[in-house]
């Protein structure tokens, strides 16, 4: 393979890494806010007191937990293509689920609906970044396999 092609592929891998890392960073930043200052966010879910604190912190813990496949995808997107695929699917499920959830909440709950809308926007942006990263990696791997054949 010519040196230019190798450099192009290396660049694609780094772009994919950076895109996934952006999603990880944003997700972990949100997780830390929820874990360190849950009371600042419990009102957006129409929750209060200890139950509100526990619910928000629980979401923060889930954010951290959900990052596992994203980390593997960022470290080596070609070797961990399955993790990349899992990250895309997780992000898509989140977006679809949040959209469905918001549709089930009566319009009188404006604060709650707006909070869920922020999740929808947040996850839609992450999904775009992950799909671009996934596409770069998969096109590259497919091209490599064709070149080997």
Strand and helix map with partners:
Blueprint: H1 3-36, H2 39-42, H3 49-66, H4 68-75, H5 81-103, H6 110-148
Helix pairs in contact: 1-3, 1-4, 1-6, 4-5, 5-6
Name some characteristics of this structure.
149 residues, mainly alpha, 85% helix, elongated
Give a verbal description of the structure.
- This protein is mainly α.
- The chain has one domain (3-144).
- 85% of the residues lie in helices and 0% in strands.
- It contains six helices and no strands.
- It has helices at 3-36, 39-42, 49-66, 68-75, 81-103, 110-148.
- Helix 5 (81-103) packs antiparallel against helix 6.
- The longest helix is centred in the C-terminal third of the chain and has 39 residues, at 110-148.
- The mean pLDDT is 94.
Describe the main β-sheet briefly. Answer: none
| Rg calc | 19 Å
The termini sit apart by 13 Å
Q: What structural class should be given to the helix and strand makeup? A: mainly alpha
Q: List the total number of helices.
A: 6
CA-based shape: elongated
Along the chain, the helix and strand elements come as: HHHHHH
**Helix content bin:** over 70%
Q: Note the quaternary state here.
A: single chain
What's the total number of strands? 0
Mean pLDDT: 94
| DSSP strand content | under 5%
Concise account of the structure shown:
By secondary structure, this protein is mostly helical. Helices cover 85% and strands 0% of the residues.
């Amino acid at each position: 393979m010519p040196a230019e092609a190798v450099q192009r592929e290396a660049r694609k891998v780094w772009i994919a890494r950076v895109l996934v890392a952006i999603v990880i960073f944003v997700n972990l930043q949100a997780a830390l806010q929820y874990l360190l200052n849950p009371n600042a966010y419990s009102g957006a879910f129409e929750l209060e007191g200890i139950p509100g604190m526990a619910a928000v912190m629980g979401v923060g813990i889930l954010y951290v937990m959900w990052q596992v496949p994203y980390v593997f995808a960022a470290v080596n997107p070609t070797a961990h293509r399955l993790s990349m695929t899992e990250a895309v699917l997780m992000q898509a499920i989140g977006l679809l689920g949040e959209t469905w959830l918001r549709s089930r909440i009566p319009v009188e709950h404006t604060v709650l609906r707006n909070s869920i809308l922020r999740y929808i926007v947040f996850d839609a942006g992450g999904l775009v970044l992950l799909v671009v990263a996934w596409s770069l990696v998969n096109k590259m791997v497919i091209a490599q396999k064709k070149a080997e054949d």
